[in-house]
């Protein structure tokens, strides 16, 4: 059994790589509290690899993850090959899902992939403070909501953003 302490980040590698890179920069910055243990550090799935080889490496990453973060951009809902598969695997594994809207929306919007319809997930805008808050708090909320049989899209109340200075 793998020690699950990683954050699995799924995104549109063709269009939204800069947001993932920015997350990594937040992690390395000395003046922010943002931190996550990146599952992408486990292995290197490359576009030049065969699809099954890539999926095998992605499964390994997810097996070591305690939370699934989906960066949602304009094209994310149209991605069928890997992102849809990653979402479905996260759901199957029961991982807490944090959906990060790159358009800064605080709730589920039209860019969300349909594979998340009816699934328990929190929706937040892209930003280091709210993302850190979600990484620290959503997993326990997710666990409680699952025990209560709750599903669907959740979002934080405005008071949370006010407390964070957002």
From TrEMBL:
It comes from the Bacteria. InterPro entries: ThsB__TIR-like_domain, ThsB_TIR-like_sf. Residues 8-106 form the Thoeris protein ThsB TIR-like domain. Pfam families: ThsB_TIR. This is MTH538 TIR-like domain (DUF1863). It comes from Streptococcus hyointestinalis.
């Amino acid at each position: 059994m793998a020690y699950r302490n990683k954050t699995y980040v799924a995104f549109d590698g063709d269009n939204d790589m800069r947001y993932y890179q920015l997350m990594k920069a937040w992690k390395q910055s000395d003046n922010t509290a943002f931190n996550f243990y990146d599952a992408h550090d486990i292995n290197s799935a490359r576009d030049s690899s065969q699809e099954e080889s890539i999926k095998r490496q992605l499964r390994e990453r997810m097996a070591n993850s305690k939370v699934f973060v989906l960066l949602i951009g304009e094209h994310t809902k149209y991605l069928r090959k890997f992102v849809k598969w990653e979402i479905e695997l996260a759901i199957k594994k029961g991982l807490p899902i944090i959906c990060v809207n790159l358009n800064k929306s605080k709730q589920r919007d039209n860019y969300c992939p349909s594979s998340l319809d009816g699934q328990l997930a929190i929706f937040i805008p892209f930003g280091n403070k709210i993302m850190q808050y979600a990484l620290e708090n959503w997993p326990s909320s997710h666990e409680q909501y699952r025990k209560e049989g709750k599903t669907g899209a959740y979002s934080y109340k405005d008071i949370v953003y006010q407390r964070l200075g957002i």
